[in-house]
Write a structure and sequence with these properties.
A hairpin with a 5-residue loop joins strand 1 and strand 2. The chain contains 1 helix and 5 strands, in the order βββββα. It is mainly beta. The chain is 11% helix and 32% strand. The chain has one domain. The chain has a 3-stranded antiparallel beta sheet with strand order 2-1-3, with no helix packed on it. The longest helix is centred in the last third of the chain and has 7 residues.
C-alpha cells in the first residue's frame, strides 16, 4: 500500500510503500495529494488541501514570452 507522510504541521514530507498487513504510521495517510504545490493534510476531514499562496504559485509559473 502506498502511504503519504506529513510533519508536525501536517505538511507533506514524502511517500513510501508498506505491506498490506503493516500498521499505518501515525504521521501518514493513504490519501494521495494530487495537483497541489504545497499540500497540507487535514486529519479530521482526511483530505489534502493547498497551503501555498497565490503569489507563491504564480512565482513558479514560467515567464510569458
Amino acid at each position: 500500500m502506498q502511504i503519504f507522510y506529513y510533519d508536525e504541521n501536517f505538511m507533506y514530507t514524502g511517500e513510501d510503500v508498506i505491506g498490506e498487513y503493516e500498521e499505518m504510521p501515525k504521521n501518514a495517510t493513504d490519501v494521495r495529494p494530487e495537483g497541489l504545490y504545497l499540500p497540507e493534510y487535514d486529519e479530521k476531514k482526511r483530505l489534502w488541501f493547498e497551503s501555498a499562496s497565490e503569489e507563491y504559485i504564480e512565482s513558479l509559473q514560467p515567464p510569458e514570452p
